[in-house]
């Protein structure tokens, strides 16, 4: 019985009593000054077993852990089990990892995506420089938006994190550390560093605010005096990617949460006078169909780049897409293996670009022209200027160069500015074309 339950300590904690007796007798109790009784050794298992057996015929209710109310008149007890330890051998851990990997849904290779070069380029540039601020992908249904975003998982590089930290804290960057890790550093404790792939977290449309932000265990805070925080999706996405499919259908209150976290890089949860903050710096990727609804301008401006996706019109390309998809559905493993060389090459290219990004330079004259384009297009704020500079440098790094050219700027500037232009109901020209026209006017 003890081996099954894995019990090291059992604590019988009383609620306020009006009667000294209970319907089910419990023996071998020794009172302590804090009005709690401790059962130890074999008696723990024996008494708990008797208690559970008797309670089955009386009715029970489980609280956190194992909790069993036993009533006699108005008396009530609660039994809780603490220090439940489970040991897993290294071989078992490895087997669990392999089993988990095998059970994962096979992902379509990024290199196998046919066409949609604009969308793929925006995604790659954000992986190279996360400070670009994410990408919004809008287009017709069935054009591979979600498939392309999820295929990015295989190309994500590894990063250093503090082992066991739910916020993926960077051991070398205090700004991206959680409160607990900072406290350990202040105490002089040595941090264990681990390498892990950048996370991609899906935010479902039906998610609750508590699931997104995280929750505070009020009962534990009141009884034990500790801030017990259960991290949410924003904590998991820190230093990673947060993907929202059909972002234009997201509830307004969740949009407000994303806006606040994207702006500050921190998520704050407040419940019943208790406040907890943690870093929440992530690449925000959204996709949607414009026919299903517009996106709030405040949220649209938070996306660094905007990719417009259309249905492939070329018959030969359409046939190729259908054939490739049929191959993947027939044998995903064989299909993925056929693109392994291309995937590895692209992953190495991304890694090299990330490493040399800091050495890429852009001339002052080009910076002035970028800002002139933004000013003449009446772009609100300075995010357009900043993102265009960053995206052009990331593209130069991807191409293996250490200097930005006007061609690099021409490639990225429509994606950086088209969603920041003020909408004119009488204007029929695509905003991306307006940006290109202004670019050639200024740069010529």
Automatic annotation (TrEMBL):
Activity control summary: Redox regulation; active in reducing conditions, inactive in oxidizing conditions.
Main location: plastid
Pfam families: AAA_lid_2 (PF17863), Mg_chelatase (PF01078)
One of the record's GO molecular function terms: ATP hydrolysis activity
GO BP annotation list: chlorophyll biosynthetic process; photosynthesis
Keyword Transferase: no
Subcellular location, record wording: Plastid, Chloroplast
Annotated pathway: Porphyrin-containing compound metabolism; chlorophyll biosynthesis
Gene Ontology CC: one annotated term: chloroplast stroma
Keyword DNA repair: no
Function: Involved in chlorophyll biosynthesis. Catalyzes the insertion of magnesium ion into protoporphyrin IX to yield Mg-protoporphyrin IX.
SUBUNIT field: The magnesium chelatase complex is a heterotrimer consisting of subunits CHLI, CHLD and CHLH. The magnesium chelatase complex is a heterotrimer consisting of subunits CHLI, CHLD, AND CHLH.
Protein name: Mg-protoporphyrin IX chelatase
């Amino acid at each position: 019985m003890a081996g099954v339950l894995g019990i090291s300590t059992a604590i019988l904690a009383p609620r306020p009593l009006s009667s000294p007796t209970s319907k089910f007798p419990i023996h071998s109790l020794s009172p302590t000054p804090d009005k709690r009784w401790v059962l130890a050794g074999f008696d723990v298992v024996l008494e708990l077993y008797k208690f559970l057996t008797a309670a089955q015929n009386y009715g029970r209710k489980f609280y956190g852990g194992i909790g069993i109310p036993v009533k006699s008149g108005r008396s009530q007890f609660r039994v809780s089990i603490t220090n439940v330890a489970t040991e897993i051998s290294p071989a078992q851990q490895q087997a669990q990892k392999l089993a988990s990997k095998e059970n994962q849904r096979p992902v379509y290779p990024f290199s196998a995506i046919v066409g949609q070069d604009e969308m793929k380029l925006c995604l790659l540039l954000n992986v190279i420089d996360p400070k670009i601020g994410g990408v919004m992908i809008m287009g017709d249904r069935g054009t591979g938006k979600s498939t392309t975003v999820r295929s990015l998982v295989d190309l994500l590089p590894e990063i250093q994190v503090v082992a066991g930290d739910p916020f993926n804290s960077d051991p070398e960057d205090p700004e991206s550390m959680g409160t607990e890790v900072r406290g350990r550093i202040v105490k002089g404790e040595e941090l264990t560093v681990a390498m892990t792939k950048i996370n991609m977290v899906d935010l479902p449309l039906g998610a609750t605010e508590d699931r997104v932000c995280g929750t505070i265990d009020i009962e534990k805070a009141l009884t034990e005096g500790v801030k017990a925080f259960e991290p949410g999706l924003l904590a998991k996405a820190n230093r990673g990617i947060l993907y929202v499919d059909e972002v234009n259908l997201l509830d307004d209150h969740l949009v407000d949460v994303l806006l606040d976290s994207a702006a500050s890089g921190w998520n704050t949860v407040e419940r019943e006078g208790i406040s907890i903050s943690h870093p929440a710096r992530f690449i925000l990727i959204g996709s949607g169909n414009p026919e299903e609804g517009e996106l709030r301008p405040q949220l649209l401006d938070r996306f660094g780049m905007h990719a417009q996706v259309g249905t492939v019109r070329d018959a030969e390309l359409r046939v190729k897409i259908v054939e490739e998809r049929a191959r993947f559905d027939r044998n995903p493993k064989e299909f993925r293996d056929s693109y392994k060389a291309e995937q590895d090459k692209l992953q190495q290219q991304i890694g090299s670009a990330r490493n040399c990004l800091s050495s890429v330079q852009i001339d002052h004259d080009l910076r002035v022209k970028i800002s002139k384009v933004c000013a003449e297009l009446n772009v609100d704020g300075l995010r357009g200027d900043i993102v265009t500079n960053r995206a052009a440098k990331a593209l130069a790094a991807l191409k293996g160069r250490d200097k930005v050219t006007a061609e690099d700027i021409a490639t990225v500037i429509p994606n950086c500015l088209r969603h920041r232009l003020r909408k004119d109901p009488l204007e029929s020209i695509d905003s991306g074309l307006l940006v290109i026209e202004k670019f050639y006017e200024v740069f010529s």
